[in-house]
């Protein structure tokens, strides 16, 4: 309880600039934590949905049936499901057109999946830039507040005849709180950025692998005779 009152009193007694820096760092920390929880939930849902879909996809289910299932819940579909949906939809559309050879069908199908893949990769990287920015700049912002607070304290000592530790300590303590808050905002942001960036790379790699494997399946169907194509 005393530590809470002490920190609050240090914030109240600090200069306006140091107070503004502390408030900015506190807001940045709150925003980071909200993004961390949101990203954690997003990746957990994305990875779970991807694994469930891949299990069903490789179980030998009919692709037309699987497409119908995904199409019925496309708004809530996972990234890999949307890649499958866009590719199979374009594949069906192009095969129905007259005078459309297999290479043109596959080119259009691959292009449709690539567009969806890029869109889903952008979702994977959402908020990561903000976390990286907070993680890299917060310590320096806090250090600036510390330097300013210490400078302000020593300038105030110039008006007294005899300086004591009791006179300097409160100002230095106020300044050091800014550094502590900068580290408090930066450390979770850096850890979260590294974790989520690694997850994004892994999921993006699995997206790309699935797209290539699915393209191979569709390529065989595109070159099969119409009466034997699935």
Task: Compile the SSE list and pairings.
Layout: H1 2-13, H2 16-57, H3 63-71, H4 79-95, H5 102-124, H6 128-157, H7 165-222
Radius of gyration based on Cα positions? 28 Å
**End-to-end separation:** 70 Å
The number of helical elements comes to 7
> What letter string, H or E per element, gives the SSE order?
HHHHHHH
- Kindly state the mean pLDDT as a whole number? 85
Number of strands: 0
The dominant shape is rod-shaped
User: Per DSSP, what share of the residues sits in E-state strands of 2 or more residues?
Assistant: under 5%
Characterize the structure shown.
- The protein is mainly alpha-helical.
- It has one domain (2-222).
- It contains seven helices and no strands.
- The radius of gyration is 28 Å and the shape is rod-shaped.
- The chain starts with a helix and ends in an 8-residue tail after the last helix.
- 28% of the residues are buried.
- The chain crosses the membrane at residues 16-38, 128-151, 171-193.
- Keywords: Cell cycle, Cell division, Cell inner membrane, Cell membrane, Membrane, Transmembrane, Transmembrane helix.
